[in-house]
Amino acid sequence: MDWTSFTECFLDSCRARGRALLTVATYRADLNAFGAWYEESTGAAPDPIAITSLDVAEYRSWLHRRWKPATTNRRLAVVKAAFTWAAGEGLVTASPAAQVRPVAAERPGPRSVDGRTLSALLREAQRAGSARDVALITLLCQTGLRIAEALALRWSDLTIRERSGVVVVRKGKGARYREVPLSLSARRALETWRKTRWPDQTPAQDAPVFPGRAGAHPLTSRAAQQAFARYVRRAGLQLAVTPHTLRHTFAKRLVDEGVSLDRVAALAGHASLSTTARYTRPTAADLEQAVSKLDWV
User: Fold this and answer.
1) Rounded to the nearest 5°, which phi and psi values hold at 160?
2) Which residues contact 80 (CB under 8 A, 6 or more apart)?
3) Most buried of 60, 82, 155, 253 (most Cβ within 10 A)?
4) Quick check: is 195 catalytic?
5) For residue 214, pLDDT beyond 70
6) Which of 187, 247, 252, 253 is catalytic?
7) Cβ neighbours of 284 (radius 10 Å)
């Protein structure tokens, strides 16, 4: 079987498994690229049976010299998937790509935003006259709550005093319970929202802190995402700031301020310190800022 027939048979199997047209087209391009490299580097037409692990390893090295790790690993993954399928079908004895490892890549830290971006987001919520959204944005970036955790809050979950406060997350990810202190900014934003929404009475303890339009039920995650997207668009921000971006921002700011990882993990509700350790990795913005310090103009 020549390489073209090998490729088409593999793609037929992908279609039979319901792979999208664009995915199949990408697979074809990647397998054609491998075939072209093999023929150019060896002077012979690629024969699936004759291809060895050394050939795949050399292809990996060739890709690594020319492309970013993500592209290199994607192309390797397609070649590996094709040979894994072929081995399962008995077309080859064993996959020559099975033992070839992907290229290691240094992953940047989770995306966060700076103070200027946060201010722009809050400013648009204020201009829209939404004390609810101002309180929600402030709560997310000051406590690191997940959007689902914030929208599930009832007033009984909040303790707001003049000099202190706490928010109770009763069922976080993994059904874990945690308590997060409320900063002065968060307490003020929540109090402003409470007085705006319930000016003449105290909200019921079981009432949602962030109700939707009907009032009896919490705001939906979809509605919150849409509000964020609207404020981002109005502020002219280039970054796609989402509620989860503010959770990342909370953790990143704490790590940058020197707060120990165990404390950040407790506040963010991480089950493992390895999850929290991601915030010690520099972001693209961190690296850009570091290099800018070398400028002399």
Assistant:
1) -125, 115
2) 95, 97, 98, 100
3) 82
4) no
5) yes
6) 247
7) 10
Side by side, the strands of the sheet bearing 165-169 are 158-160, 165-169, 178-181
Residue 173 known to be catalytic: yes
Confidence of residue 297 (pLDDT cuts 50, 70, 90): low
Active site residue 27: no
Which residue of the set 173, 176, 233, 263 is catalytic? 173
Annotated active-site residue 252? The verdict is: no
Q: Would you state the structure tokens that stand for residue 179, as one six-digit string? A: 């308590």
Structure confidence at residue 82 (pLDDT): 96
Q: Which two tokens stand for residue 259?
A: 């707060």
Residue 74 annotated to the active site:
no
SS3 content of the chain, % helix, strand, coil (to 5): 60, 5, 35
Helix axes 131-143, 115-127, angle to 10 degrees: 160
Residue in 80, 146, 187, 252 annotated catalytic: 146
pLDDT digits (tens, 9 = 90+) for 40-52: 999 999 999 999 9
